[in-house]
């Protein structure tokens, strides 16, 4: 059984899905779940609270449990490495994350894993960049993925603010 909730943020409405084990999904679109949905505000509230704190600049690390069951062992290994070694305000390249993850996955494969990250923001795939720029980002509500990535990196101080940057909403 899965509990769902949503939160309005500066980068759009985020939806979360939480199992009895932990957070299993963060998305900009309605969560697609194959499990029965239950109304359990107590299960989703800690995740929504921590996301709200993050967007206010009050939280630099998430401490909610994550349910990794929907990821492969390789995805899990790379995403856990990202989660535990790339702190708020910093970034790594796809190649650097490949090395940190034990070189089992090439940099291009790291990009694919980042694109399939089921819990973006909490597991900060936006902190993984190309050697020559931002790279890609599958988050956001459409074609604004790179703008969302840039906004998140500016919020965290990993990039300098651009002219017109507004911490209250995405308008880059």
Automatic annotation (TrEMBL):
Name of the featured protein: Methylated-DNA--protein-cysteine methyltransferase
Domain named Methylguanine DNA methyltransferase ribonuclease-like: residues: 5-67
Superkingdom of the organism of origin: Bacteria
InterPro entries: MethylDNA_cys_MeTrfase_AS, MethylDNA_cys_MeTrfase_DNA-bd, MethylDNA_cys_MeTrfase_DNAb, MethylG_MeTrfase_N, MGMT_N_sf, WH-like_DNA-bd_sf
A biological process from GO: methylation
Its EC number(s): 2.1.1.63
Family: Belongs to the MGMT family.
Cofactors named for this entry: Zn(2+)
Function comment: Involved in the cellular defense against the biological effects of O6-methylguanine (O6-MeG) and O4-methylthymine (O4-MeT) in DNA. Repairs the methylated nucleobase in DNA by stoichiometrically transferring the methyl group to a cysteine residue in the enzyme. This is a suicide reaction: the enzyme is irreversibly inactivated.
Enzyme class: transferase
GO molecular function: methyltransferase activity
Keywords (A to Z) from UniProt: DNA damage, DNA repair, DNA-binding, Metal-binding, Methyltransferase, Phosphoprotein, Transferase, Zinc
Segments forming domain Methylated-DNA-[protein]-cysteine S-methyltransferase DNA binding: 74-157
Alphabetized SUPFAM superfamilies for the sequence: Methylated DNA-protein cysteine methyltransferase domain, Methylated DNA-protein cysteine methyltransferase, C-terminal domain
Reaction catalysis annotation: a 4-O-methyl-thymidine in DNA + L-cysteinyl-[protein] = a thymidine in DNA + S-methyl-L-cysteinyl-[protein]; a 6-O-methyl-2'-deoxyguanosine in DNA + L-cysteinyl-[protein] = S-methyl-L-cysteinyl-[protein] + a 2'-deoxyguanosine in DNA
């Amino acid at each position: 059984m899965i509990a769902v909730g949503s939160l309005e943020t500066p980068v759009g409405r985020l939806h979360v899905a939480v199992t009895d084990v932990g957070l299993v999904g963060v998305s900009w679109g309605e969560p697609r779940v194959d499990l029965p949905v239950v109304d359990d505000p107590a299960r989703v509230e800690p995740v929504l609270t921590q996301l709200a704190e993050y967007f206010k600049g009050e939280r630099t690390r998430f401490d909610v449990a994550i349910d990794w069951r929907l990821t492969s062992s390789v995805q899990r290994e790379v995403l856990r490495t990202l989660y535990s070694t790339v702190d708020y305000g910093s970034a790594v390249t796809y190649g650097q994350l490949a090395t940190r993850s034990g070189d089992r996955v090439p940099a291009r494969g790291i990009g694919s894993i980042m694109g399939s990250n089921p819990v973006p923001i909490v597991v900060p795939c936006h902190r993984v960049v190309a050697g020559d720029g931002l790279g890609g980002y599958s988050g956001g509500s459409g074609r604004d993925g790179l703008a969302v990535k840039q906004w998140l990196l500016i919020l965290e101080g990993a990039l300098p603010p651009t002219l017109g940057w507004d911490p209250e909403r995405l308008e880059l």
